[in-house]
Amino acid sequence: MKKSLLFSAAIMLIFMANVYSQAVMTTGTLNVDVSKYGRIRLITPGDAKRQIERASILVGTSATGVFDYTTDATNKDATVAVTNPALSNFEITGSVDNGGAAVLPNVIVKYNVYGWTNGAYAVVKFNVKNLEANPINATIALDIIPYINAVYGLDTVTYNTTAGVIRFHRGLTTNAGIKVLSAPLKSLFSFEWYDGYAKEADYWTWMNKGTLQPRYISTTADGPVSIAAQSAATIAAGASVDVYYALAIGATEQEMLANITAASQKYTGLFTAVNRVLPSAIGLKNYPNPVKSSTKITYQLPKEGMVALRIYDALGNVVATLANSKQTGGMHTIDFDAKDLARGVYSYKLIFGDQVTTSKMIIVK
């Protein structure tokens, strides 16, 4: 098998471990291995067999702009084990960027992998920060290669619609599962691995299939690759968005699903609680500013709720209402046509629950 050429000799494994400065956490029932470039592996500790060969981040904005592990990721902050984790018993962190190359989208991806004693699951957080001068509309996904019981090929990828879990299995043997925790899964597509599959245009197509493939059965010894994407999020210049995943293993499907549920409960109890103390509107801004004719207003909501967004003139009069409805948590962008407004300084106010955030824009003609 072609993939095995990457790791064919024991000496190569040792060499790669040293060069790529991996960090490993052992919960007692799960080992998680994170490479220098943010590649995540799941390993059963008893027999040291990998179950997920690689789960890595994809950030795409177009068919010619997909940031991926294979061709773009360059180490920014070293992958290290956190000495005294605040939210879990074990934690690994690090970050990657494009190394200053002319690669779009220009982003920094910081990763935190959280684990708990005797838990056969982990919660993974990716923070994607936009380094470009303008907002980006980013589709974020995982590129996943299973390796059930350290064997490639002839395994199955099944999407459990009830649980929202992507299941990797071969018959009734060890199961691995992945679930998006922070947003609905919008696209899932699997195909047979082939050498050199990491092409931007292909990634973009797979990330935007727009359907959830219910089952994929591998028919060769190379095995499947799965691309799992969520809906696009608008990220303002200099702003970032968090994406959370649950990863788990289990001897049976039921055991794996129970471990995914345990990870989901950790996410709900710990990480969404952290998010709730954040301001209701993060990075409320518009671009361009000053405004000649139109502008885009972007903001982020920590959860679903009623939102009002209004434009005010210098005297405090409402000159436009851009939103007055319930909206989902996450990044939002509203196009504002300002051609009918006189030149001058205006403010725009976002009201979310009992909190208010205000920014200013300058209209020029």
Largest sheet: 9 strands, antiparallel
Q: Count structural domains.
A: 2
The assigned CATH architecture of the largest domain is: Distorted Sandwich
Question: What is the name of the CATH class of the largest domain?
Answer: Mainly Beta
Strand content: over 45%
Distance linking N and C termini: 63 Å
Give an account of the 3D structure:
The structure is a single chain. The chain has 365 residues and is mostly beta strands. The chain folds into two domains: 3-276, Distorted Sandwich (Beta-galactosidase, Chain A, domain 5); 282-363, Sandwich (Immunoglobulin-like), CATH 2.60.40. 12% of the residues lie in helices and 50% in strands. The strands form four sheets. Strands 1, 2, 3, 4, 5, 10, 14, 16 and 17 form a nine-stranded antiparallel β-sheet that branches. Strands 6-7-8-9-18-13-12-11-15 form a nine-stranded antiparallel β-sheet, covered by helices on one side. Strand 11 and strand 12 (165-169) form a beta hairpin. The model is unreliable at 1-20 and 274-280 (pLDDT under 50).
